[in-house]
Amino acid sequence: MSQAAKQDANEPTRTGLSRGALKRAVLDNLFYVMGRFPEVASASDRYSAVAYTVRDRLLERWIRTARYYKERNSRTVCYLSAEYLPGPHLLNNMLNLGITRTAGEVARELGADLAEIRETEEEPGLGNGGLGRLAACYMDSLATLQIPAIGYGIRYEFGIFDQVIVDGWQVEKGDTWLRNGNPWEIPRPKLTFPVGFGGRAEHYTDKHGVIRRRWLPDLMVNGVAYDTPIMGYGVTNGNLLRLWKSEAPESFNFQAFNVGDYYGAVHAKIEAETLSKVLYPNDEPVAGKELRLKQQYFFVSCSLQDMIRLQLRNAGTLDRFHEKYAIQLNDTHPALAIVELMRLLVDEHFMSWEQAWEITRNSCHFTNHTLLPEALETWPVALFERLLPRHLEILYEINRRFLDEVRVHFLNDEERVARMSLIDESDGRKVRMAHLAAVGSRAINGVAELHSSLLKTTIMRDFHDLWPERFHNVTNGVTPRRFMVVSNPPLADLISDTCGHADWIRDMRRLRELEAHADDAGLQGRWREVKTAAKGALSDWLGQHTGFRPDPETLFDVQAKRIHEYKRQHLNLLHIVWLYEHLKQNPNAELTPRTFIFGGKAAPGYFMAKLIIRLIHAIGEVINSDPQVNGFLRVAFMPDFNVKNGQRLYPAADLSEQISLAGKEASGTGNMKFAMNGTLTIGTLDGANIELRDEVGHDNFYLFGMTAEEVQQRQAEGYRPWELYHGDAQLRSAVDLIASGLFSHGDTELFRPITENLIHSDPFMVLADFHAYQERQQEVDRAYRDPNHWTRMSILNTARIGKFSSDRAIAEYAKKIWQIEPAPVELAD
Ligand code: BZD
Predict the structure, then answer these.
(1) Domain ranges of the chain
(2) Which of 7, 275, 711, 734 is placed for a possible disulfide with 578 were both Cys, Cβ 3.0 to 4.6 Å?
(3) Beta carbon of 281 within 6 Å of any ligand 1 atom
């Protein structure tokens, strides 16, 4: 098959759009939207003209979908997430429309290059990591599975910072993704909702003489909707990502202006606009940040008001709200939805408490993404009360009724009552958001088998005792459209060619058909060619951006994810240092040449994580400039790991590092993205690794380390890392080499916080797993030297990865959690 024909095979839907029509549209957009002609157009102008052209083509389907859903009054999923990381839209949308090839030809005819145009796109970095990316994968699958859905969130003006590396340190740069405009969004200035803050609650008597309670906020902000179409693959259906931007209400300005308070007017405007200004760049909550609580309430309130508006428009009453909407809370960040929905129903729509609670509890569903106790969200009651006084009253009433239920269920167990309360009274009074989410939801789920079962025995144990039927597992998944077809077209083509169809893109279980060819020398050769080409492309990119171009002939060993101690990038580093020493002492050691590649951002205030980035660079600097080891060992760091850069990494990796301490990584999703691209995993029995290993086969996965149970046991016995340090000469010398100043120009202080922490506390048991890790790595080293064997394992990883498609995950949510059916939209004749 020719390259073009192969690409076509992956694009099942047709728009009937001719090359000529597409070209005309691009030129029109360049002229009428950008105000440019081709000779003077910048790269960004060209990108925008193409993007507007694609967007226009999406709109027809999108509007058709909206009309159909409205007529049908379909049950709708409302995914509430404070974060979304959709990645660049252009290619994904072209794929969904089936116009990639035509668009490439048009670009060429216009003297441009689609690859270059594509590079110009700024991705919306509206999230921190796995949680935000998961939300984007789920939006993709909801549309593809033809399930009516709206993703609600915040339109941050500044998303996650851009990471640059200066002298080996991470430096954060503001993310100005909206600088050149955003062709994918449609502002809806008329779709605006007021959101209040502060003030007080009071009694009043309504016109029927009933005494009621109401909230008199002292600050009002408007939320304005910005819509981005999210199209399905191979279907007409398109859903909606609706993000809220905060603005000051006009009236506010005038009021202040009239009394001559010009400064006050401007200040109030800035305060209102601050709400959606910037994403908090932490992948763990930071205690008590007022603006963060305001952001959460802001987007939750706008979203619920929007749902209520739609329901009133369609049904005229809110009585069956829960039958129309399935609200999914992406972690506790939107958990205020439970209290806000109660307030809207009771205070503003005059519903009885009992009916409102019935509706609320039957609308909401909660996904937990972490077991780390420090990552469980709480808010000081005083702050909560100051910002949301009426909500605190409602929360207290929810709690009062809930704790009565607990008392009836567990007689004479006040300790349990205190443990389960929505208010933590132990250390300053705090609202426990996970408890609120659990009490107000019909279903609670974890994101991998192990995580869901640990949930029931650790942080949610009491809730599981009370309501076992509410607990579920839905193992995470990722979209093969973005992480295979868009990221790695040559691999997608090879798979389609081998299987004789492209149906696997919608039905990933069909990748199993590759298994029959795993030993085929022809396929193996082509498989290696694809991998080597991807490695070459990554090398070129790294060469351009870091000055170091890794040799594509070496094994690419990649760890790319947020930098966090529990993810143990420093375990990887200890192994590298050990290898370095080993090579220096045994210059003739038989070793597979390897390039260790790291990528990931550290939270700006997370000292240890930033020091780990510094250490990666320090070790790289010494190793990469040591000619004695250069043939065998190199270290690279990819700056600014985001969706776009991830797309360069996944196809190029031979080995994926998933080495968190067992019991700490809820699921992980990078593990799935790598394996889809034929990357083998070295990993612990943590999160979804366990299921991944079961799927791909134990022989095709490099397992090491303690189990979650062993970890617990070891900790209960009292973990003493200094004994391991003193007892293992290789481990000791690796730690000592870092402490010696070899990697820091003689400075013995710089990395002391890392080495001391490992020896004296080692909360993530790096030392305990070191030995097992090192042994497994030696096996990897040997296995890679047998290309046929390695390639076979690589093919089998891809062939057996089907379970980890987000389509499977969304189908499970639809059935087990939401009870919702697809609503296929027909394509126009
Ligand atoms: O969610 C991650 C988990 O750590 C992963 O194990 C899991 O695979 C993914 C998806 O389920 N959690 C996050 O990414 N969390 C955050 O980014 C976050 C952001 C703000 C506040 C708290 C957590």
Answers:
(1) 1-72+96-119, 73-87+123-476, 534-805
(2) 734
(3) no
